[in-house]
Design goal:
The chain is of the alpha+beta class. Helix content is about 40%, strand content about 20%. The protein has an eight-stranded mixed sheet, sandwiched between helices. Strands 13-12-14-15-16 form a five-stranded mixed sheet, with helices on both faces. It has a three-stranded antiparallel sheet with strand order 2-4-3. The two termini are about 50 Å apart. Belongs to the class-II aminoacyl-tRNA synthetase family.
């Protein structure tokens, strides 16, 4: 029996890996333009980091977390998301009292036990940005603008729309929660079992339900916009005004929610119609109480996360898979040419030129391999060429060949010519 990847995991190879890396490299580069510094937190944490931050009624906590006791008897969890880990890191590294706001970028694997499907795995990867310690609407707009910039830089913004909503301040949410309880309680017999539980513990989470019956009820549910305080309404209007100035298109969607108490004000999703049912490619919101959940002081924050696999699928659908670098193939002819070929091989690599050499074979076999690896040029070194201090440089696209002095070869190939 041949061994296969564990269910819900997959290998990243070839074009798929190039797309994956391109997403992360692009996001890292754009985030740095906005002043984000990269942090790396552990892949597993004390289970309380996620249990207290995601809430005991969330699907992630109740159904999807990979939680186990280690050999010391401590309960640890493979991270299902990274915002909680970043907030924990802010507190445990003593960074809550100075140099705020902190602008953090991250990239790495996450783990959730859920039904695998295209673009969704049990080990998946996310990029994310968090602005920790900023209460102003401009920080919300800037975090969103960074996400939009990443999507446009990847060239996958077509068919992708920013949907935005507000969760208001505490007073707004209290009034809205009461309205939701009254509405859903009057239809309790039509709610799914999960939503009936949420009605008692966290009614906002009903709005996240995927159950078909729940969705029909949600269509007629009250929205928070009728319950916003003047201050909350002004905050939301200011965020949208900043987005306009930053050139980020959006539309209002009053059904976007974040169901935990420390979430407030801005909530948003970038959605696409090009991935079937998996339409959300980036999502986030303001979480002014999460750092306090980790034992720190009140630290208003805003952030988002995006699935690398989904972004890579959009790259593939757009025909934007990055090309592999095309190397130069070194082709020594005869034993005496191998030493000089190795010298030239490393000189090219030190000059930033991708270069390869076949480990064995005659001229014909080595040239076949050069074509197989997609080399742009072949450098042929034989005894007569070495005696004259030259090499035969063959352009494998044009099929032309000329003699080039050995001491001029690196500079010519480093310039991109063959």
């Amino acid at each position: 029996m041949s061994l296969q990847p564990a269910r819900g995991t997959h290998d990243l190879i070839g074009e798929e890996f190039r797309r994956h890396r391109h997403v992360i490299d692009t996001a890292r580069r754009i985030a740095s333009l906005y002043g984000f510094e990269e942090w790396a937190t552990p892949v597993f944490e004390d289970t309380r980091v996620f249990a207290r931050s995601l809430g005991d009624t969330s699907d992630v906590v109740t159904k999807e977390m990979y939680t186990f006791e280690d050999r010391g008897g401590d309960s640890v969890t493979l991270r299902p998301e990274n915002t909680a880990g970043v907030c924990r890191a802010l507190v445990s590294n003593g960074l809550t009292q100075s140099n705020l706001p902190r602008k953090v970028f991250y990239a790495g694997p996450m783990f959730r036990y859920e039904r695998p499907q295209k673009g969704r795995y049990r080990q998946f990867h996310q990029i994310g940005c968090e602005i920790l310690g900023a209460a102003e609407p401009l920080s919300d707009a800037e975090a969103i603008a960074c996400g939009w910039h990443i999507l446009t830089e990847l060239g996958i913004e077509d068919g992708t729309v920013l949907e935005i909503n507000t969760l208001g301040d505490t007073e707004s949410r209290d009034a809205y929660r009461a309205a939701l309880v009254a509405y859903f309680a009057s239809h309790a017999e039509r709610l799914s079992a999960d939503s009936r539980t949420r009605l008692e513990k966290n009614p906002l989470r009903i709005l996240d339900s995927k159950d078909a019956g729940d969705r029909r009820l949600i269509e007629d549910a009250p929205t928070i916009h009728d319950h916003l305080t003047p201050a909350a309404a002004d905050f939301y209007a200011t965020v949208k005004r900043h987005l306009d100035r930053l050139g980020v298109p959006f539309r209002d969607n009053p059904r976007i929610v974040r169901g935990l108490d420390y979430y407030g004000h801005t909530a948003f999703e970038f959605v696409t119609d090009r991935l079937g049912a998996q339409g959300t490619v980036m999502a986030g919101g303001r979480y002014d109480g999460l750092v306090e959940e980790m034992g720190g002081p009140h630290t208003p924050s805003i952030g988002w996360a995006s699935g690398v696999e989904r972004l890579a699928l959009l790259l593939e659908a757009s025909g934007r898979t990055p090309a592999a670098p095309r190397p130069v193939a070194l082709v020594p002819v005869g034993e005496a040419a191998e030493g000089p070929a190795l010298d030239l091989l490393q000189s090219l690599r030190r000059a930033g030129v991708a270069a390869e050499i076949a480990y064995k074979g005659n001229l014909k076999k080595r040239m076949e391999r050069a074509n197989r690896i997609g080399a742009r040029a072949a450098v042929i070194l034989g005894e007569s060429e070495l005696a004259e201090g030259v090499a035969q440089l063959r352009d494998l696209d044009a099929g032309t060949q000329d003699r080039v002095a050995l001491d001029a070869l690196v500079q010519r190939l480093a310039g991109g010519a063959a």
